[in-house]
Amino acid sequence: MAATKLLEGIRIVDLTSVVFGPYATEIMADLGADVIKVEGPTGDQFRHAGRPRTTPGMGPCTLNLNKGKRSLAVDLKTPEGKAALTRQLAEADVFIHNVRKGAIERLGFGYDAVREIRPDIIYVHCVGFGSDGPYADLQAYDDVIQAATGTTTLLPRADGNPAPRYLPSLIADKVAGLHGAYAILAAVVHKLRFGGGQFVEVPMFESFAHFMAQEHLFGATLVPPIEPAGYPRQIDPFRQPFPTADGHISLVPYADAALQRVFALLDAEHLLADPRFATPKDRAANISQAYAEIALRTPARSNAEWARIFAEHQIPAMPVRDLADLTSDPHLAQVGLFQQRTHPTEGDYLHLKPPVTFSAGSCETGPAPTIGQDNVALGAPPPTWP
């Protein structure tokens, strides 16, 4: 008998696109919710990121971002499309979307209108900027949020190049998606315990600012501040992977005792007599110089040699790998993060297993749907594209 899914019986109607909202609902689908992805006739635009092997709209990113969901492809500007969404909302626990407030109300699916359809609905609005602030009507994309939160000034602080730069990841989208996931779960728990739905707003700007400020607000936490913003350890230009004989290694002598062990392993115990490193206070004050001294010595051995030595002496360290090598990592292979599966239309692909494990309840999900794959099953006309 198959294990019960963790969110068995929770139905989510998902009218989000790109990454922010779909990442939140990917997590919900992984946990076993019935996620109905509502999209236009040509599909969510992020479906077209990358080249599909067989089917238009089945680019590589969608194979995991939309796994385990059902697709309802309709034109919400038509009576038929509105009727199809209304039918789904009547049976939904959660409605999540990232359409602007004015636009969703013109379509007839604002909060008050959806409550007429389903009085206890959990209505989740994914927005760029919170509706109570002066930026409320501005458009938001990951790059915009990285700029607005000061994230683009972190690399200049670390390497001295004054040009602001993006972190090369959709990090704001995904962080906001995680906030969206816990917001859904909290609202569902509240409904199960106390009854009734509610309106939930998940703003990307505030979510990412909250995320980045945990360490980088730093001295600006105090009023008035006595130190600048920016967590010094993270923006230290010398706190970078160290060169080895055949690459680079990440080495983190976080505690003072670990730093002393590293000096010993590098045959550099004499540095402890150096006034810069004579006491724990000295070593902490001159940690950048300690990193520089380490970097002079790590080229003496290979990545594999250092990884073995540091592991034996309880020093956190990992060789720097190329992004393309992640799928061959032995630990990730052992825990099954990347699972080779066969998609019904796209052939073999790597399915991302949820990273969190549970002793009870299944997190097994099916493949990502093609555009409008579930229209007929959901009571809508067959998709007209592709």
Q: Cα distance, first to last residue?
A: 38 Å
Return the average pLDDT rounded to an integer. 96
* Number of continuous helical runs: 15
- Which residues sit in consecutive blocks of at least 5 with pLDDT less than 50? none
Count the E strands: 11
At CATH level 2, the architecture of the largest domain is 3-Layer(aba) Sandwich
Going across the biggest sheet, name each strand in turn: 3-2-1-4-5-6
The largest sheet is: 6 strands, parallel
Our Rg estimate from Cα atoms comes to 25 Å
The count of domains is: 2
* Gross geometry: elongated
CATH class of the largest domain: Alpha Beta
User: By CATH's scheme, which homologous superfamily of the largest domain applies?
Assistant: Crotonobetainyl-coa:carnitine coa-transferase, domain 1
Q: What's the CATH topology label of the largest domain?
A: Rossmann fold
Strand content: 5-15%
Q: In sequence order, what are the helices and strands, one letter per element?
A: EHEHEHEHHEHHHEHHEEHHHHEHEE
Helix content: 25-40%
Which structural class should the secondary elements be placed in? alpha/beta
